[in-house]
Amino acid sequence: MFAIAGGIAVGNLYWAQPLLTEIATALQVSSGTIGLLVTMTQIGYAVGILLIVPLGDMLPRRGLIPGVMACSAFALLGGALSPSFPALAAALGAVGMTTVAGQLLTPLAGDLATPEERGKVVGTIVSGLLAGILLSRTISGVLSDAFGWRVVYGVAALCTLLMAAVLWFMIPAEQPRPRVAYRKLILSVFQIVGRYRTVQVTLLIGALAFSVFTLFWTGLTFLLSAPPYSYTVSQIGLVGLVGLAGALAARRVGRFHDRGWSVAVTGLALCLATASLVIAMVGAGSILLVLLAVLLLDVAIQAVNVLNQSRILSVDPASRSRLNTAFVACNFVGGALGSALSGPLWSWGGWTALMLCGVSLTLLALAIWFGARQTLGTTSVNRDGA
Known about the structure:
Blueprint: H1 2-11, H2 20-27, H3 31-34, H4 36-51, H5 61-80, H6 85-98, H7 101-112, H8 118-147, H9 149-170, H10 182-195, H11 197-225, H12 233-239, H13 244-258, H14 262-282, H15 287-313, H16 320-371, H17 373-376
C-alpha cells in the first residue's frame, strides 16, 4: 500500500511531461519556455522536501501524510483550472511542494523493516514510486488525447484525495517522539549532512544522476513531437511503459545493498546510464534504438537511486526522515537543473546537444564515484567523515 500511495503521489510531478507541446499550443508559449513547467514542479518538490519531510522525525505520520496528500489534491485542482501559463506554473510549483507523501512513507517503511531487509523494503517502495512516474506519463497522454490536458489534473486531484483517505486508516500508530523547534529541525538537516562524508558524496552523485533523468525525459517529448516521429500525446505517453523495467529493477536492486555490493553496482549503473545516452544519440532516427535507450537509462538511474537511498537511510536510524529530506531535495535540485537545460539545449543543438550534456553529467558522476569508492563503502562514519 505504501508503494501504491507513493506512486500516486510522485506521479503528480510528471503529468506535464508528455503534455508540454499541447500545453504550449493551448497557452501560446514557446518550446524554450514550456519546459519551465517541469522545472517549477521540481523546484517546488525540493522546497517541500526540505520544509515538510523533516517533520516525519517529529510529528505522527498517520496525520501528516494524509494531510499533505489532501493539500496536493487542491493544488492539482488549481492546475486544472489555471487560465494562463504563469497561473499553471504557480499551481504546479504548489503541487511539487505538497506531493511529498512518497518521501515520508519511505523512511517510515525503513523504520518498520528489519535491518536485514531494509534494502529490499526500500526497493519495493521506490519501485512503486517509479511505476507512478512512468504510468503517469502514459495515463496523462491517453486522457489528454481523449478529454484535454485539464482533465488530467482533475483526475489526479481525485485519485490523490481518495488515497489520502485510505492512508488515514492504514498507517499504523506510532509512539510519541521528542518535539524539536521547527527552525532547529530544519537546520539539523544541514548539520547531519555536514557530519557524514558518505552522505555528502552520495547526495552529489544522486543529484547528477537525476539531472540526467529529467534532461532525457523532458527532451524526449521534444524529439518524439517533432519529425520524423510527430507522435501524438498518447503515443509519447506509451513510450514511458518501456521504462517499467526500471521499476522491476528497482525492486530487486535493493538486495545488492543488503549483500554489501552497493558501491560496485552504483558504478556499474552509472556506466550503463552513459552507454544508454550514447545509444539514444546515435540512434535518434530509430524508434527501436530510442526505446532501448529508455529501457537501459531507467534501469540504470533507478538502480543508482535505490542504492543511494538505502545507503543514506542506514547511516543514522534516528534521523531517517531528515536524511531522506537531504537525499530527495538534492535529487530534485539536480532534476530541476536537467529540465531547465532541456529547452535551451533543444533550441540550440537539438537531441545531440541534449545527449552530449547528459553524457558529460554521467561521466562527472562516475569520476566522483571512482574517487570516493572507499568512503562510500564505509559502514560507520565518524564526525570528521573518515
